[in-house]
Design goal:
Elements: H1 3-6, H2 9-18, E1 35-36, H3 39-46, H4 51-67, H5 73-80, H6 84-91, H7 94-106, E2 114-115, H8 121-139, H9 142-152, H10 155-159, H11 166-191, H12 200-212, H13 215-220, H14 229-247
Antiparallel strand pairs: 1-2
Helix pairs in contact: 2-6, 4-5, 4-7, 4-9, 6-7, 7-11, 8-14, 9-11, 11-12, 12-14
Length: 257
């Protein structure tokens, strides 16, 4: 993407989705019919980074690793070889830039679309397993580990009453966003008679715990855990099996004949 493109239509069209204006999606209607939207589609609806913008977000991640929460718009502009005016046009402000960066990192955790009318135990388990695989892959990446370490370092600021810390941004657009993406799948499973639970949040937390276990905290503390694709797939399959053992719907006497 050329420098001229940064200040033209591209900057204008992405100014609102990337800024800190809440709840706006460029005026486009959000479909809420049969198919559960994938996380990739949700990310596309809320903020679609261009190749040039991805370069900026990657630069932010590098700076967060190197400089922690001291990141500035001037430093990002220098590292990404773009103007501060372009950054403000695309992301609104520093908070908007951090939100977009965390969303970009979290968007790698995907949920494939599910047709509620054809949902069965096998397809539900497949979607849950893929989500768990993506999740474990992301939280085990060096960038994610570094980002979370920096975010944890801002906890004292949050405790002192400061809002919009990196920790708060990571929590809202990381863990809480994951919940918003997976809960519709869990609820679809319950509606289809495949899952049984009273509280969706509690069911999600159970799945979260079975998937992540102590992996993330050990990584944050410097433990060298083997997280190759085969190990991740095995752990994800185990987590789904345990979750279905806990929350899989049991046939009633009438169903059994």
């Amino acid at each position: 993407m050329t420098g001229g493109g940064e200040g033209g239509r591209e900057g204008a069209t992405n100014a609102v989705p990337y800024g800190t204006v809440r709840g706006r999606r460029g005026g486009r209607p959000v479909s809420g019919e049969i198919t559960i939207v994938s996380v990739a589609a949700v990310a596309a609806e809320e903020s679609v980074p261009t190749e040039r913008q991805i370069g900026v977000l990657d630069a932010v991640l590098r700076l967060l690793v190197e400089e922690g929460d001291r990141l500035t718009m001037t430093g990002v502009a220098r590292a990404a070889s773009c103007s501060k005016e372009t950054l403000y046009k695309w992301f609104g402000d520093r908070e908007g830039l951090l939100v977009a960066t965390v969303r970009w990192q979290a968007a790698q955790v995907r949920v494939a679309p599910i047709d509620r009318t054809r949902l069965d135990r096998a397809s539900l388990a497949e979607r849950l397993e893929e989500f768990a695989v993506n999740w474990l892959t992301v939280i085990g990446s060096p960038t994610s580990i570094a980002l979370n370490r920096v975010a944890i370092g801002t906890a004292a600021k949050a405790a002192a009453g400061e809002t919009h810390t990196l920790g708060a941004i990571v929590l809202e657009n990381g863990r809480f966003a994951m919940g918003r993406r997976l809960k519709p799948v869990l609820e679809a499973g319950r509606t289809a008679g495949l899952l049984a639970f009273d509280d969706t949040e509690e069911a999600f937390r159970t799945f979260f715990g079975l998937t992540a276990r102590d992996v993330q905290i050990r990584l944050l503390l410097g433990d060298r855990i083997t997280l190759d694709p085969e190990t991740i797939r095995r752990d994800a399959r185990r987590a789904v099996g345990q979750f279905l053992a806990l929350h899989g719907a049991r046939p009633t006497a009438g169903d059994a004949g």
